[in-house]
Amino acid sequence: MFKRVSGTKDILPDEAILWQRLEEISRNIFSLYNFREIRPPLIEEAALFNRSLGESAEIVKKQMFLIQNKDETYALRPEGTASIVRAYIENNFQKLGGFAKFYYIGPMFRLERPQKGRLRQFHHIGAEAIGSLEPELDIEMLSLADTLLRNFSIEGYKIRLNTLGCANDKDKLVETLRKNLKNKTAALCPECNKRLSINPLRILDCKNEPCKEVVKGLKISNEYLCADCKKHFNKVREGLDSLKIDYEVSPHLVRGLDYYTGTVFEISHNELGAQDAIGAGGRYNNLVKELGGACAGAIGFAFGIERLLMASPKKEEAALEKKLVYLIALGDKARSYGLKLLAELRKNNIPSDTDYENKSIKGALRQANDLGAWLVLIIGDNELAKGVITLKDMLSGVQKEIKAEDILKEIKC
Ligand code: HAM
């Protein structure tokens, strides 16, 4: 028997309803904020991610699903930002006015060690706004992320916020970290010892306990920031305060991808255990230029759908909202009549189903119940002779006969 690949999931129909709900809410909110959907391909040239995320990023070093085809290497996309910037440049959005807001919903692939909340195929709901350096856009993105979470009815999340400053500031931060960590190498893991020379920012993300202890003891002041970046960050904070969006400034938050500059944020949920990030994002003001476009400030974020569902209130069983009508037709004559009735119900936008296994009335009623039907229509020889249909309300259990020609009116009211 074949089994699914480790780190992947079958999203079964009962769960798929919850996914559809999240997706529908997202699409509505994105359209409120005037974001438009983009659907880039799932495979890209691997070099796109090497270049965007950085050769020293864990994703690039260890987690890409690579496909070798003659001289070309493709990757299943591990994230959406790089693809969207590539699509923005390739499809001439800069020439078409420059500023563009996109959203995307779809699968991402990372060859990670699977565990609770960490999959090899997972799904993002993400947004990217490209073409502006203004702090108002940072506020818009954080407000959008917060609005989405509220509309998903998720509570108990925390937004952590920081700024890496511009490329110069980031270099200064890297140097400061290198200086402060130089005499702590004995306490750092072998990987972080390598990171110290290659990219010390990664040390702040290390999950090893001894490294976390070292990082906890580091004092990081905002001295590495230039006046413009300080002003930008203060404006972002003022905007969030005025919109009453809760956040916490976290100087240790740096994010594990090279493209970030300026504002960065991570949203965590207190009930998710080790993998507690439900979403993350930030500015990537240099990426468009680095991938061959003109200078264009940009910012985005992505939520992990699987983790959003883990953080969602469990009572919200969307299955209960189903409005299914179930038809039980007993005998050949009733069945051919039922065929036409079913077509009529569907023509009138009434979700409906019937028994295809020739069950007894008891078995068919049990199935109607299992499917969450609110109403059962029963037709047998008796009903056919009288020109009626028996209606059973599945919630109250009340049963009554209705004239066949009045059935649609009765169901609709
Ligand atoms: P990321 O932090 O790598 O950022 O991923 C965003 C979210 O995806 C995480 O917070 C988490 O909820 C979810 N996630 C990541 N990896 C996994 C996994 N293996 N299994 C389950 N869920 C996972 C990005 O990908 C950036 N592109 C976000 C961004 C958009 N920055 C700017 N624009």
Overview of the structural elements:
The strands form three sheets. The chain has an eight-stranded mixed sheet, sandwiched between helices. It has helices spanning 13-32, 46-53, 58-62, 81-90, 135-151, 167-181, 190-198, 209-216, 227-242, 287-290, 305-311, 332-347, 361-370, 381-386, 407-412; strands at 36-37, 43-45, 66-69, 72-76, 100-109, 121-130, 157-163, 248-249, 263-269, 277-283, 298-304, 325-329, 352-354, 375-379, 388-393, 399-403. It folds into two domains: 13-166 and 243-316, BirA Bifunctional Protein, domain 2, CATH 3.30.930; 322-412, 3-Layer(aba) Sandwich (Rossmann fold). It has 413 residues and is α+β, with helices and mostly antiparallel strands. The radius of gyration is 28 Å and the shape is elongated. The mean pLDDT is 93. The protein starts with 12 loop residues before the first helix and ends with a helix. α1 (13-32) packs antiparallel against α5 and α5 (135-151) packs parallel to α9 (227-242).
Any key phrases for this structure?
413 residues; alpha+beta; BirA Bifunctional Protein, domain 2; Rossmann fold; 2 domains; eight-stranded mixed sheet; five-stranded mixed sheet; 16 strands; elongated; binds histidyl-adenosine monophosphate
Ordered list of secondary-structure elements with their pairings:
Elements (H helix, E strand, L loop, with lengths): L12 H20 L3 E2 L5 E3 H8 L4 H5 L3 E4 L2 E5 L4 H10 L9 E10 L11 E10 L4 H17 L5 E7 L3 H15 L8 H9 L10 H8 L10 H16 L5 E2 L13 E7 L7 E7 L3 H4 L7 E7 H7 L13 E5 L2 H16 L4 E3 L6 H10 L4 E5 L1 H6 L1 E6 L5 E5 L3 H6 L1
Parallel strand pairs: 1-5, 7-8, 12-13, 12-14
Antiparallel strand pairs: 2-4, 3-4, 5-6, 6-11, 7-9, 9-10, 10-11, 14-15, 15-16
Helix pairs in contact: 1-5, 5-9
The protein binds histidyl-adenosine monophosphate.
